[in-house]
Model the fold of this input.
Amino acid sequence: MGRTIKHAWLLATVAGLVALFLAVPVFAAEFGSGDVYRLAAGQVVEDDLTVFAQEIYIDGKVEGDLVAMGAYVEVNGVVSGDLLAAGAEVRINGVVEDDVRAGGAGVIVTGTIGDHLFAAAGGGQGMTSAMRVAGRTVVQGVRIERGATVGGSAYLVGGEVLMDGKVAEELRIGAGMVNLNGNVGKDATIEADTLNIGGAAQIAGQLSYTAPEQVTVPPGVASDVRFAQREATRPATRPFVDVNRIVRILLTLAGFALLGWLMLRYTPAALRRPAEALAARPGQAALYGIAAVAVLFAIPLLSGLVFLAILLFWGWFPAIMFALLLTAALVLAWTLSPLITGLWAGRALLAATGRSEGDFVALCIGVLLIVLASLLPWLGWLVGLVSLVFALGAIIAMRRGVYDAPLPTTRPAATPA
Done:
């Protein structure tokens, strides 16, 4: 598979995840974190729940929406609202009464989903080695196991897709390898490199599939079958979907979301003041930012001279401390820039679409868009640089008093209680 196709699938997968996330602006009334988070059987969260942890187990009931991001996510209980889950492996053994949006190396459904399912995962013929996360071997690909039910439509993307369960409405799949043995209540549309249709499959509507060559469809599977041929891709030496890169992107998004939530909760002015300054004077902030970045490019030379001066006059220890502090400051500026720029961009996007949400949702939207744009070939570095320019300019503009109004008091609550 060529680099263009790989980039297309990677961007499509991540874009899908971003779009799915943006479709669910969740305010969590409860927030969980840590190495292992477990909602025990019998326990009930009477509101929305957001969890960031290495391992997440939901054995109880969430009476609202659930957002779960970690290395391993397992839902054995009941979620009365939507589920948004991201991790190396996401496993749904229980009941989700509304929509499910899940992404990772593996997404496995053995339980019941009340409405639509949107899933993106890895796997495929190019995956030659097992993936281990949190002490367990990850089952890769999207798998709708026998006995699992989806009450609405299912939209599945990945390196490998297994559909042995039941989908009440439409089924749409785009994958490297597809095995279909389940029941579909309406039409099924499949695009795959390799397609296997078992005799147990039942499609009430039309079966449309696109593949390098026509496959044998057992009698009685569908009354109407349509085939479209496309050029076969070269055998991939790497996974159909670059799973490791997707996992890194998901972890980056989770990290930004957690850091943004903490800052909005404990030091809100550190993000809100620069974002307000940027909204008030974007052009002037950009000029300040360009000047600041120009100074940053000169820092290696200047810092080298300062380091030598400190070394000569005060010795090794002060010189090393200076180098560490300077490095930490640069890393901090680069890390925080998507948060400031993202909050500004998210607010602007929400205002343009006529939606009124809090700052946490606006920040997540903006950061997600920045991270997605940074994946573009040849232009990704420019996105990061522009974000840094605007963020530094906003901070300087704020310090110079370009925008000195008080914080808004009518904005909806931005962070969980």
